[in-house]
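Q: Joint fold for the lines below.
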Amino acid sequence: MKFKLQEHMLVPKHEILSKEEAEELLKILGVRKEQLPKMKADDPIAKEIGAKPGDIVKITRKSLTAGESVFYRLVI
Amino acid sequence: MLPKRVAALKFEVLSPQEIRRMSVVKIITPETYDDDGFPIDGGLMDTRLGVIDPGLRCKTCGGKAGECPGHFGHVELAAPVIHVGYAKLIARLLNGTCRECGRILLKDDRRDRFIEEIERRIEFNQNYEDVIKEVFRLTKAAKKCPHCGEEQIEIKFDKPTFFYEGEHRLTPKDVRERLEKIPNEDLPAFGLNPKATRPEWFVLTVLPVPPVTVRPSIILETGQRSEDDLTHKLVDIIRINQRFMENKEAGAPQQILEDLWELLQYHVTTYLDNEVSGIPPARHRSGRPLKTLAQRLKGKEGRFRGSLSGKRVNFSARTVISPDPCLSINEVGVPKEIAEEVTVPLFVTPNNIEIAREFVLRSEHPKANYIVRPDGRRIRVIESNKEELAEKLEPGWIVERQLMDGDIVLFNRQPSLHRMSIMAHYVKVLPYKTFRLNPAVCPPYNADFDGDEMNLHVPQSLEAQAEAKILMAVQEHILSPRFGGPIIGGIHDHISGLYLLTRGEKKFNREEAMELLRALDISEIPVKNEYTGKEIFSFILPELTLEFKAEICQGCEECKGENCEYDAYVIIEKGKLLKGTIDEKAVGAFKGIIIDEIARKYGKEEAKKFIDRMTQLAIRIISKLGFTVGIDDEDIPPEASMQIEEVLKEAEEEVEKLIKAYKEGDLEPMPGRSIEETLEMRIMQVLGRARDRAGKIAQRHLGMDNAAVIMAVSGARGSMLNLTQMAACIGQQSVRGERISRGYTYTNRTLSHFKPGDLGAEARGFVRSSYKRGLSPVEFFFHAAGGREGLVDTAVRTSQSGYLQRRMINALQDLKIEYDGTVREQTSGSLVQFRYGEDGTDPMKSFRGKAVDVRRIVREVIGEVKK
Ligand SMILES: [Mg+2]
Ligand SMILES: [Zn+2]
Ligand SMILES: [Zn+2]
Ligand SMILES: [Zn+2]
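A: Joint structure:
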């Protein structure tokens, strides 16, 4: 049986940034793509959301101290 | 001249041509000096290699000793030798390429895919080690060359520098020839850059000779010259090299040449690394192993860890520490002897020139030790030249005056595991030979006075002094970033003292009260004839309102709050202690709620003042009331002893019953456990409970006035378990969490005093005696076995956690929180966190780890909140 990783309570929300969003993010942070944290294109979650190398994935996690925390990863 | 900056460093392998090109002299003779003591031309001390003797001039650059940086020479090796450092890589390359045509043992398209992957990883700044590993794995497994079809034979690598193809041994010459055949296009797949490195260069044909400046000889007291280890090794190499050449020319038999070749290989190998496995290290005449190139770089004392990241400093001191409760927490007592040695620079200006002059003219303690002229010359100030120097003194000079009261210094205790291990203190010059510190700052340093030593550093610029005062002063560290609470606070007697003062309704007459308070510089005290302990403590409290359960709280089922019968519910209203007892929970390091509250509400300075006064008051109280522990404090009446005896006997009988049930197979196993495990657990349970019950009995008879009990309940020192073990019963000894069962394995007993297979309490390490009563020989044996585990554990843990700490620091040292709240790596600028710690909170300013303390804010806004 195949199930959705995203539905598991321990897997945080992953979404691919649009081109504009990605550019905006890099502009705000003032970094090149390569300076972001990375994740592999063959990571199960990347496969599930269809992320390709070069995409930036936004990860929204639940945090005990901050409520919600946002993280970004470059797919390689 | 324009300042030059190093833009990048690149590590490559020297080619033979490059070695010859950078060489200023070809070394041809093993002789170093002639009979007159002059360096021989073409020898290892040739003056073209640079000079170390004062007076001589370098023949290459003309510089004197100190000016000449030294220049490389070279030796032409009579036969090629393997470079040990590359031996393993050579073995992989030989196995990865065709023995016939030298091509990589991969088809071109596969090779290109690997090269592509490596380039991609480099672009993304990622580790490509595993790709190369895969290439070596695949090529080694190949049986046949895909290019010429030649069958491959596996090359066996015999450490440190030998290669066998089947039975046949490959000479370095053979190896070099094979490596030469590898085409440039194949190299990137092995992780080599053909622009920088050709694999045949891993086999040496020319050896660079380092300048004399890196291997200076020293003149012994006897006037004899003693050469550096590297020079010794180079002499060996050149000597054998010459012998080899002579023999070859004379047409000596093959065997002799081979032996000499191997000897040359040995010398070159040990010259590069004298600690390779597989060959004996080269030794000095005295038998000491030589320190050659790799040894200079490697390890704790090596160039990297010893000379580059670790340095020795001036203006520092180290001595034993001892306590002085009269000092403030941000002071340090410095022995006069040290204060007279280390100095603070006084930068002379028109405004302070008179003060500076006074220091120069003085002839005792705070006097000037040196003056530094603008040209950098240092002149020692002595009795005979002080007047002259004081006269000449002018703005722009620096007077180095002795350390004196009020100077700021950094104080440190190893291992420096957190930032509170180095804090800034103000100097107080004192007699005797130890550093003195207030015992309240022991917790952050993790110091005690059983012989601990600490280091002191004197900041040498106004900027450094300002930084120390603003960022590193002790009061800046009262709240720890580790858990968002106070790490500096009362310990031991401070807690016992305040407990004695504030417990119940102790009364003090006016005289006694003044005696307690006189050292605390409190200006206003209401005139009364009688003061309670709680009132006296209130005098040092700033205005604050607090309610909390004290450490002595018994954890009653329903807390009676302010009506607590143990006086364990603390109520402070507007700076008055109304109810409750002050103990560890109120003023202790790590726990002290009052310190925490003052630091947050009134700031660090006020918190410092409170700790100073609190410790002073506590010390006075405890010395006034007296507080001692003696062996007879642990005496318990005979009827208590009998009760304990009864409890233990019952427990032992129950253990016997369990064993009987086990043997008869009547024991019901616990879920998920075997019968044996169940038995062990049940026995441990029974004996543990018996010990606790014995402890309770003893406790009942010791009473709350017992000093040891006071220390245990107030959190000052020790625990009720310690007391139980002293007064009632030590209990089960364990190794690895189990009862002691090892010993005479073949009869399955711990000692020959027991019957084989005895599982009873006594036979497996239950100690029924107390420390007071003393242990029986058998008990003592088990106690030693259990105690040893503790010692081994601490020894292992400290070394492991030390290494873990080192790795953590190395990994995290150049992360920085930027002003936008992100965490970035400094050199690459890559992002590590998008918001520091997810919540962007400084842990030091957090409330025990939480970003906001809602209860506190509500209380602040609406005043009192009753729970
Ligand atoms: Mg110690
Ligand atoms: Zn020179
Ligand atoms: Zn081939
Ligand atoms: Zn209570």
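Q: Anything notable?
A: Chain B has a mean pLDDT of 89. Chain B is about 35% helix and 15% strand.
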